[in-house]
Amino acid sequence: MNDQIQPQPGIMDIALYEGGASKVAGRTDAVKLSSNENPFGPSDKAKEAFARCAHSMHRYPSTDHAGLRGAIGDVYKLDADKIIIGVGSDEIIHMLCQAYVGAGSEVVFTEHGFLMYRISTMAAGGTPVEVKERDRTTDVDAILAACNENTKLVFIANPNNPTGTMIAPAELERLARGLPPQAILVIDAAYSEYVEGYDGGADIATRLENVVMTRTFSKIYGLGGLRVGWGYGPKAIIDVLNRVRGPFNMSTAQLETAEAAVRDQDWLERCRNDNTRLRAWLAEALAEKGVPSDTSTANFILARFTSTAEAEACDEYLKSEGIIVRRVAGYNLPHCLRITVGDEPSCRRVAHLIGQFKAQFMAGDLA
Ligand SMILES: *Cc1c(COP(=O)(O)O)cnc(C)c1O
Prior knowledge:
Blueprint: E1 31-32, H1 44-52, H2 66-76, E2 83-86, H3 88-100, E3 106-110, H4 115-123, E4 127-131, H5 140-146, E5 151-157, H6 169-178, E6 184-188, H7 202-207, E7 211-216, E8 229-232, H8 235-244, H9 252-263, H10 265-288, E9 300-304, H11 308-320, E10 323-324, E11 326-327, E12 336-340, H12 344-362
Parallel strand pairs: 1-10, 3-4, 3-5, 5-6, 6-7
Antiparallel strand pairs: 2-8, 7-8, 9-12, 11-12
């Protein structure tokens, strides 16, 4: 063992990311409600575009991503020159940290914030600063109080994962305007398409010089396995990010499939409407069985149990019945389970099983 070979400080302190489980031992019919995936998958047009790419795999992909940026610009009515494409929004988050964070930099996010913010901050040698939320909701005043002359980035997912709550655009703008001059607000809008009429922070990122918005094809577009995300913000910041981006970071299949996906807004609307209907149904069904949740604005529900033991026991019970949900102890919510809104049969099944579990747990059978 050569102890002269050492990574940069902080790297070995990073806790490895654990994705939502996708299998239950001994079962082939497990239903996965653990990663906030679109249960209906991508649009047929996206699948057709992906299949067509098989014929051009010997060709290097575009390096400027003009086709996909143009399509996003058309659909979202944004300037394509202020858009950057990445390997999921994870890569945009990573590029932001790589470009703006180093030793001595602080990066602020909330106590139930997305785990990637911490990982990318530490990978860049920066110091994560975790801020309390109020009733599982982003607290702008607490964030402003945590900022100082070392703050480089502030990450807010809106709607937030895993809480499902969101704050109003006016609150995001108040946050951006209150930041120290060297800090950038990153609005992570991974779930914004689930909120009808919400622009994800695009308007604020258009008007203010210190705001970047990140988006993804992994959620409502149903392309989590393909890995495509994008960022939008001031030209000066996008120009910086393009310098740390690998020129061939995106494959042809990623670019062409995402372009077809974004142009099929009819599919997106159908998925949003189904999600809205089934989410309301699921939340109410669980509440009736004694499992409350905050009003969710995303494609999942954060189900609250009376204790960590109860949440763990329910998770085990669901798994034994072939349903996989997400434990969120890593997000400082050990008494909760995050449940993705699946298709109608999955919603009915998970609600039914949680009702059975509650009845048994209350009777002491599983305690
Ligand atoms: C799922 C998710 C993303 C998307 O990440 P990708 O890398 O685009 O798959 C980003 N932010 C949050 C908060 C998420 O939950």
